[in-house]
Amino acid sequence: MRAWIFLVLLAAALAWMLWAQARMQHRVLSFLVHGAGRSPRRGATHTHLVQGGAFLLAVAALALAMVADVHWQAPWLRIPIGVVVLAAYVPFGATLGRTRLRRLRRTVEQRMNDLGAPPDVAVAIARAGRPWSLVASVVMLATVLVVTWHHLRA
Length: 154
Description:
Elements: H1 3-36, H2 40-70, H3 75-93, H4 108-114, H5 119-147, H6 149-153
Helix pairs in contact: 1-2, 1-3, 1-5, 2-3, 2-5, 3-5, 4-5
């Protein structure tokens, strides 16, 4: 059992998530603010639909990776699919998460206010997105497990 591969990939995925999240946060927040308009309810609904759809795509991709590996004997598909999920979904899903460095970084609500969102819309979008940030972290763990599957079984 080579658990060190899992731990190294988990650390790399976490570093990637933090770096990419900071780079894509402006685009994601402006997309959500634009979709919300001036309505907090519409902002929360739009956030849930976008984040939920991305989550379903990521889970379907991980299921396809495991089916390809276990049933079709195509382990060469498992790693690229997992890397795509790590590269695309995980930072996207984590963009609305809370940060522990509140004094050093502006909150998500402040960033949306800078983009022109009314305060109630910014709060509604941030509240709707926080659970999806946790879900993205769980998907990150599952994806690292899928990518390192053969090394953990050996």
